[in-house]
Design a protein that fits this description.
The complex is a heterodimer of chains A (537) and B (198).
Chain A lengths: L9 H14 L9 H25 L15 H12 L9 H4 L2 H31 L9 H27 L9 E4 L7 E4 L4 H10 L20 H25 L3 H27 L10 E2 L12 H13 L14 H12 L10 H21 L4 E2 L2 E2 L2 H27 L1 H4 L7 H15 L14 H31 L15 H35 L3
Chain B lengths: L1 H33 L1 H4 L3 E3 L5 E4 L39 H16 L6 E2 H4 L9 E3 H6 L1 H7 L4 H10 L13 E3 H11 L10
Helix pairs in contact in B: 6-7
Classes of the chains: A mainly alpha (537), B mainly alpha (198).
């Protein structure tokens, strides 16, 4: 983002320049944090309004071969917020609700733009951390345009074509009525649609909103073991690149690598945990003489390992696409995605949002370490003071407060409890997972929960909005504050934020913050269910 | 603020046209030109030109002479293409155990021997899973061979010829496409064929 060598991408470069002329912005005209945040909010408000309109009006619009009616106002509100905030929580079933116009011109547009918004904010935050004595954080319009033109659209195009080659469908045909092979099965309706174009940006932008209800478990979204692995890689690629972008912009690659190391280590630990617990199976089925892996809610072509790898990748990031029904995972395996969400989706994280939240954690880690060892807390030469700590804490605690307050309301009201599908401790997990997923803009679910319940539609929409934009604005404010500061050259009292020691320390801070906030819930939900399961009911 | 609103509206318009209109159309154009079969849903057409299904979408098989596939939890009817999804039954939900018991009872009436392959008693994530493990297919060979008047050896060879392997290290269990296998069975060993033929 420090300037793209124009000669390498001449066509995109000329398109880019034309866009700036059309929208009347001078790319060198940068904004302060307030201006940047305002532009970001205005742009997202426009996106929300347009998407709401499309959802409500789809029944009267074109590209609707199945004649779906418009979304109900509550569902439209929930869905529009969900896609604008990069959550992609789905309270509807795509193949039975959304027209092709809604999918391509409504939802997929926000797949691009919400991803570009997240990355833009992350880039502005990095500028704030690395610039000296300025109040300028960049030009939001330029960042958004560049990310869309140079990163998202080209990658999505290539990935979509690959997915089609593997069997992901891409057409605007009406659904096909098939004479099933077994006469007893009658006629099977085979859904159609422009799936590949949606699928590719859904993974790359860590959006996660499936074309179909079954999301990436659906054979038309994820047809082969190869597409499964490629989709997992696509979910990670942009988010995993950002620490390196950071290191480069900071002029010290070690700083980026340290954050990357934190992500990789927690990722590996989480995979080891989910794989070992899920392969242990369900002891309540002992004695039924069943052979093979625990496959409830899984697809045969993926098998257990790639299924749980997808489950944790989608929650380590803010993707929320699923190839496995998380509600049916064994208790401790189901706890891993839940925990990764509760930690704030920073293990690679959502494109942009994961990274700026990780920065907030890094600042807090530096500050606490500074207090403990009596050194001045500094990060990249910036002195950390009360103002920075306030914004970091707002970023990290906003989703946590939302989860605890709204899940609390759901758990003591009839309207909240009636949506629960699975009984007992698992029901608690369903509600906690739902609000964790919405507050952190993930979008996956313990999907037994009736998400179409009006209480969840409306409260969920509010939670997603606050969970997205309060941290984003807080981090921009933090960046604005850091950008104004001088850089202090590292002295003898500086804690090196690229050392292995700092990596371990940061992991500790992340786990303690997440763990202390949610330990009681995890104990009463998945852990309690685990003991019920191994105790034989 | 007013200038931002104008800039925002104009930029939204540009990016909307690019990502919402141009992008899917370009992919559709390339996809249908280069991979028309896949882009159209990998549809399988019968002898008289009617569509019989998609290679990628599982179907419900309950009649004699067919391999059965994964239990499907789709709403309305099993393998309902308009309502993909799993059971969402949690690991301690009594409803999970009763549905597994019912499927085991069904396998027993079909004379599929124990141990029962887990993919035949646990429902899939999409409800449209076209595959079962090779083990689950082999376990059904004696029954299907009898109903199709084939020798078990012939049918076992036929099943093995349909085995697909996942990626190395990632999904080591071989599996078969139930829809494809049953479709090939109908074409090569029709149910009506008298004993001994084929």
């Amino acid at each position: 983002m420090t300037g793209v060598p124009a000669t390498r991408f001449r066509i995109i470069d000329s398109v880019e320049k034309k866009i700036y002329r059309f929208i009347g912005t001078d790319p060198s005209d940068e904004q302060d944090w307030r201006g940047y945040a305002m532009a970001m909010l205005i742009f997202n408000a426009i996106g929300l309004a347009v998407l709401l309109f499309i959802l409500l009006a789809q029944g009267w619009l074109f590209l609707n071969p199945e004649n779906f009616p418009g979304f109900s106002p509550q569902l439209a509100f929930n869905t529009a917020v969900s896609f604008v905030t990069n959550t992609n929580w789905q309270a509807y079933s795509g193949e039975a609700t959304a027209s092709y116009l809604t999918q391509t011109a409504g939802l997929a547009v926000q797949n691009f733009l919400s991803a570009a918004t997240g990355i833009s904010v992350a880039i502005a935050v990095i500028r704030g951390m690395t610039r000296v004595e300025t109040d300028r954080l960049g030009n939001f319009w330029v960042d958004l345009t560049r990310i869309t033109l140079y990163v998202l659209v080209p990658l999505a195009l290539i990935l979509a074509i690959f997915l089609i080659s593997q069997g992901v469908i891409q057409n605007y045909d009406p659904y096909v009525a098939a004479q099933a092979l077994d006469p007893a099965a009658g006629v099977q309706t085979i859904p159609m649609g422009p799936v590949a174009s949606q699928e590719s940006i859904k993974e790359l932008g860590t959006n996660g909103g499936g074309f179909f209800n079954a999301n990436s478990a659906h054979p038309f979204e994820n047809p082969t073991p190869l597409t499964n692995i490629v989709e997992i890689a696509a979910i990670l690629v942009i988010a995993a690149a950002l620490p390196f972008t950071f290191g480069r912009m900071a002029g010290d690659r070690r700083q980026g690598f340290a954050l990357y190391a934190v992500m990789v280590i927690i990722f590996i630990l989480a995979f080891a945990a989910i794989y070992s617990t899920e392969s242990a199976g369900n002891p309540l089925l002992d004695g039924k003489d069943i052979s093979g892996d625990y496959l409830e809610g899984k697809e045969v072509r993926f098998g257990l390992g790639p299924s749980v790898l997808f489950a944790m990748t989608t929650t380590a990031t803010s993707c929320g696409a699923v190839n496995t029904m998380h509600d049916s995972l064994t208790p401790l395996a189901g706890m891993i995605p839940m925990t990764l969400i509760f930690l704030g989706e920073i293990i690679f994280g959502g494109v942009g949002s994961g990274f700026y939240t990780m920065i907030a954690f890094a600042l807090i880690a530096v500050f606490i370490a500074g207090l403990m060892i009596g050194r001045t807390p500094e990060y990249l030469g910036k002195k950390l003071e009360a103002r920075e700590m306030k914004f970091s804490l707002v970023t990290i605690l906003t989703p946590n407060v939302l989860i605890l307050v709204f899940a609390g309301i759901a758990l003591v009201t009839e309207i909240g409890l009636s949506a629960i599908f699975n009984p007992g401790a698992h029901g608690l997990s369903e509600v906690m997972y739902a609000f964790g997923s919405m507050a952190n803009n993930n979008g996956s679910a313990f999907a037994g929960l009736n998400a179409a319940d009006p209480f969840y539609l409306v409260s969920g929409g509010i939670v997603m909005l606050i969970g997205r934009f309060v941290p984003a604005v807080a981090m921009l404010a933090l960046a604005g504050s850091c950008a104004k500061k001088k850089t202090v050259p590292p002295g003898i009292g500086t804690l090196p934020t690229y050392s292995p020691m700092f990596v371990i320390w940061l992991i500790g801070v992340i786990i303690i913050v997440g763990g202390l906030t949610f330990f009681p819930i995890l104990a009463a939900g998945p852990v309690a269910e685990y003991f019920i399961m191994i105790g034989g009911g | 603020m007013r200038k931002d609103l104008k800039t925002g509206l104009l930029l939204f318009l540009v990016l909307f046209l690019l990502t919402g209109i141009l992008y899917p159309l370009v992919i559709t154009a390339i996809g249908t030109a280069v991979f028309p079969y896949q882009a159209g849903g990998s549809l399988v057409t019968g002898t008289v030109g009617t569509v019989r299904g998609s290679l990628l979408i599982g179907q419900e098989f309950s009649g004699r002479g067919y391999f059965i596939g994964r239990p499907s939890a789709t709403a309305g009817s099993p393998y309902n293409g308009k309502a993909s999804g799993g059971s969402n039954l949690g690991p301690t939900n009594p409803a999970l155990f009763s549905s597994i018991d019912a499927r085991i009872a069904d396998l027993k009436t079909r004379q599929v021997p124990a141990p029962f392959p887990s993919d035949l008693v646990m429902s899939s994530a999409s409800g449209l899973d076209p595959h079962i493990s090779l083990a689950a297919a082999l376990a059904q060979v004696p029954v299907v061979a009898r109903e199709r008047n084939m020798t078990e050896d012939d049918l076992e060879a036929f099943v093995l010829s349909h085995a697909e392997q996942g990626l190395p290290f990632l999904s080591v269990e071989p599996y078969v496409n139930v829809f494809l296998m049953n479709s090939d069975l109908d074409n090569r060993y029709p149910l009506s064929s008298p004993p001994g033929e084929s």
